């Protein structure tokens, strides 16, 4: 599969310029080699997995976290169970120290169960970590998360925010696809997902091209990034990405931000409402609504409401916090009636 994919473009690092507009406003992924190579956490990981674990223990405040555990037969894959009635892993609420203890105990064992602590807010779970290990992203106040586990395979999914993922320990392989590959990735349920985002049902380790024939087309558009400790990967909003953690101990830190006003809700809410209110309309009515959305949303411009006096344009004019608040209240009232 990977022979068909080209490598993600690379920017040289570490340097402050790497986080300039060339990267932060990019619409395609980019790798910045060594961007966080001077972090103490990365330096500790360069010594050994045990040293990285000891370093992380310094910031443990006894907080409980959620970890996913799957049997060795899962081969590290976070996925559904056989009949899609549930998942192939069990979430467990444990202490952060317990996660580190178990991962350390399994360092020299193979095979082992999967143990995976997914997106966890650093400022909540590891107070003080960002004092020594952090990335400044000009013009944004990103949410910083940490991911810790052993060998894992996270199915291809997309996230709404832009994202810089920084490898702290272990190695990662990330396979990315442009947003327009949706139809070729065979995405599963939208409202019943392993971790909040809809995922591709294709097993990237053993693609079933008879069941998922269009996946071959997706592979023609794939880009692959092979990441070492200290490397970072910029993933633009809505790019599909499949992530493999390749070592017995892996740590990733990522930063999320949205390039949109704070009052804007998630477009996923719009999709869910559209499924409920438009998908099952007669075909001719759907075509009418397609034209309405084209006019007011996807091709809106200065002329869309130019014939309406400015004070009367309301939602057809520039939006702000107050108008968004009024809209939200009106929608809630209608949905709850």
UniProtKB/TrEMBL annotation:
<dbReference type="InterPro" id="IPR041667">
    <property type="entry name" value="Cupin_8"/>
</dbReference>
<dbReference type="Pfam" id="PF13621">
    <property type="entry name" value="Cupin_8"/>
</dbReference>
<dbReference type="InterPro" id="IPR014710">
    <property type="entry name" value="RmlC-like_jellyroll"/>
</dbReference>
<protein>
    <submittedName>
        <fullName>Cupin-like domain-containing protein</fullName>
    </submittedName>
</protein>
<feature type="domain" description="JmjC">
    <location>
        <begin position="79"/>
        <end position="272"/>
    </location>
</feature>
<dbReference type="InterPro" id="IPR003347">
    <property type="entry name" value="JmjC_dom"/>
</dbReference>
């Amino acid at each position: 599969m990977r022979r068909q994919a080209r490598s993600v473009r690379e920017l040289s690092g570490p340097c402050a310029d790497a986080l300039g507009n060339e990267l932060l406003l990019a619409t395609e992924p980019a790798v910045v080699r060594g961007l966080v190579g001077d972090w103490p956490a990365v330096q500790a990981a360069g010594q050994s997995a045990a040293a990285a674990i000891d370093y992380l223990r310094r910031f443990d405040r006894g907080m409980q976290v959620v970890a996913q555990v799957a049997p060795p037969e899962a081969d590290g894959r976070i996925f559904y169970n056989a009949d899609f009635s549930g998942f192939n892993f069990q979430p467990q609420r444990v202490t952060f120290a317990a996660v580190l203890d178990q991962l350390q105990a399994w360092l020299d064992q193979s095979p082992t169960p999967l143990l995976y602590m997914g997106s966890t807010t650093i400022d909540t779970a590891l107070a003080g970590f960002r004092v020594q290990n952090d990335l400044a992203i000009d013009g944004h106040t990103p949410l910083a998360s940490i991911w810790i586990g052993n060998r894992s395979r996270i199915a291809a999914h997309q996230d709404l925010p832009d994202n810089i993922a920084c490898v702290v320990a272990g190695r990662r392989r990330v396979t990315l696809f442009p947003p327009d590959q949706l139809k070729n990735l065979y995405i599963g349920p939208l409202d019943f997902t392993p971790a909040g985002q809809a995922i591709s049902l294709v097993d990237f380790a053993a693609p079933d091209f008879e069941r998922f024939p269009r996946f071959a087309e997706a592979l023609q558009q794939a880009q692959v990034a092979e990441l070492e400790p200290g490397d970072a990967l910029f993933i633009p909003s809505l790019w599909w990405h499949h992530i493999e953690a390749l070592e017995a101990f892996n740590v990733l830190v990522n930063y999320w931000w949205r390039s949109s006003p704070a009052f804007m809700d998630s477009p996923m809410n719009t999709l869910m409402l559209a499924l409920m209110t438009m998908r099952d309309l007669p075909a001719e009515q759907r075509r009418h609504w397609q034209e309405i959305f084209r006019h007011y949303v996807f091709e809106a411009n200065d002329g869309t409401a130019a014939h309406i006096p400015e004070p009367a344009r309301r939602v057809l004019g520039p939006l702000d916090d107050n108008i968004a608040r009024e809209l939200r209240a009106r929608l809630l009232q209608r949905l709850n009636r």
